[in-house]
Amino acid sequence: AAGTSVTVKWTVTNGTCSAFDNVTLQNDAQPVVSDQPNQTLCNTSTFTMTQTAPSVGSGIWTFVGASGAAV
């Protein structure tokens, strides 16, 4: 379930020699975001981003490198 974790042990054996390592697996909640429509703006230097905050976690805006786009 989301928000839980479990520790598992990985053991490797070669003859009478062995080694192990504990690994913790954390099950985080999946964030959900809304899909907002594209915006078209004309001759303005300001605009409002319309994406809502994620249900859990944090969000960040990044450029996807549109051809010929001016910023």
Structural class: mainly beta
Contiguous runs where pLDDT drops below 50 for at least 5 residues: none
Global mean pLDDT: 85
**Measured on Cα atoms, how large is the radius of gyration?**
23 Å
Number of helices: 0
Q: For the report, how would you describe the main beta sheet?
A: 2 strands, antiparallel
- Count all strands and give the number: 2
Q: Order of helices and strands, N to C?
A: EE
From the spread of the alpha carbons, the general shape counts as: elongated
State the helicity in percent bands.
under 10%
How far apart lie the N and C ends?
43 Å
Per DSSP, what share of the residues sits in E-state strands of 2 or more residues? 25-35%
**Major sheet: order of its strands?**
1-2
